[in-house]
């Protein structure tokens, strides 16, 4: 039975050829453990397994890590990847970091054993024939699937919700959807809900009339007026104050706004695109975000995958960043540099990768950029510079293991230098606080225990 096949399909409404990824649905069956005989059907391209509730398949067993492993569709088949679990992931009794699964393969997660079984039902995912969507880049199946969907959505004049982690390119995708739409020649207005104080948000969105409040000496237009005939982009919509959520909902439903201090409304012709790195469904369940607004925003929802889920794009992205940042000078990455970059999980996503490349371009003059150059310019303090004393006694280890040790040492030192304040430490590391928490979980570092040991 084939893992999956690629084929060409003619899309008559676009009059262009588009690749289609076709793969069979599969299921995981618990064959040993407290939930023996339980079955889970995999009908998406990435499935995460662990004890935490946010996983696709939740295994209630103390030997299973919160985020234990994932299975994803790749060009060669179904790829299982351990997520830094405490007890490791086994395939047919062999501990693996990554491996391709065959029908009937037995997977061990702690003391739980699952069987991987293909099904006869086929899933087809349309893929863009391009490796880009405007300025967004990616050769992987996941990104080409996103580009295809974004291209289709761009031509529709409906609201769009873009979700994904920090540094992943949500704002860039929103702007490209606007540029690829019939509104592309009109304004693209950005409202960052995470930076505008709550008491100023209504004025920012709707504007005010003269004399509406103390200090309103002149009338002022709001973001909706400025975006008329174009697109308004709400970045981090999950931070929008609760009092303004029903007002935004009314604008979406009626296409009318009212300035602060004004009694009559006036119509606006605006497309709304919103983005969030928060789980808005969870926010709705917690009562922090209106359910009706969530459904109104998510007519189309586009989820951008984190870079660690399409690491095959790292060489392509890194080379493109080098080309763009070299100012016409002939520069390239050595093979050891590509291997080094590909071994990193990039918790800061594409933004972090771009920053690393930009630093090495400015600080290294060599035509061929090698791994030591990247380590010395971007990972100093992590213990990865070539002459680092921290790695002096670890020359007998595989590079990947030495890097894990150095990364853990860096995190511990980072927390100690900032009195175990994760928020401050994340700013120094130039990564999102949630990404830092993820790294701490990966290495089994508990801030409370570390702080206690240091006191």
Q: Which strand-content bin applies to the residues?
A: 25-35%
Distance between the termini: 60 Å
Q: Rg to the nearest angstrom?
A: 25 Å
What's the overall average pLDDT, rounded?
A: 84
Number of H- or I-type helical stretches: 15
Low-confidence stretches: 1-17, 380-394
Structural class: alpha/beta
Q: Biggest β-sheet, characterized?
A: 7 strands, antiparallel
**Percent helix range:** 25-40%
* Number of extended strands: 25
Shape: globular
Describe this structure in words.
The protein is an alpha/beta fold. It contains 15 helices and 25 strands. The protein has helices spanning 141-154, 170-179, 198-206, 223-226, 245-254, 280-285, 291-297, 314-325, 335-342, 349-363, 371-378, 399-417, 422-429, 433-442, 447-454, and strands at residues 4-11, 16-32, 39-42, 46-50, 57-58, 69-74, 77-82, 89-91, 94-96, 98-100, 106-109, 112-127, 132-133, 136-137, 160-163, 188-192, 207-208, 220-221, 231-235, 256-257, 266-267, 271-276, 300-303, 332-333, 368-369. The strands form 7 sheets. Strands 1, 2, 3, 8, 9, 11 and 12 form a 7-stranded antiparallel beta sheet that branches. A 5-stranded mixed beta sheet has the order 5-4-6-7-10, with no helix packed on it. A 5-stranded parallel beta sheet has the order 16-19-22-15-23. α1 packs across α2 (170-179), α8 (314-325) crosses α10 and α13 packs across α14. It is globular, with a radius of gyration of 25 Å. The termini are far apart.
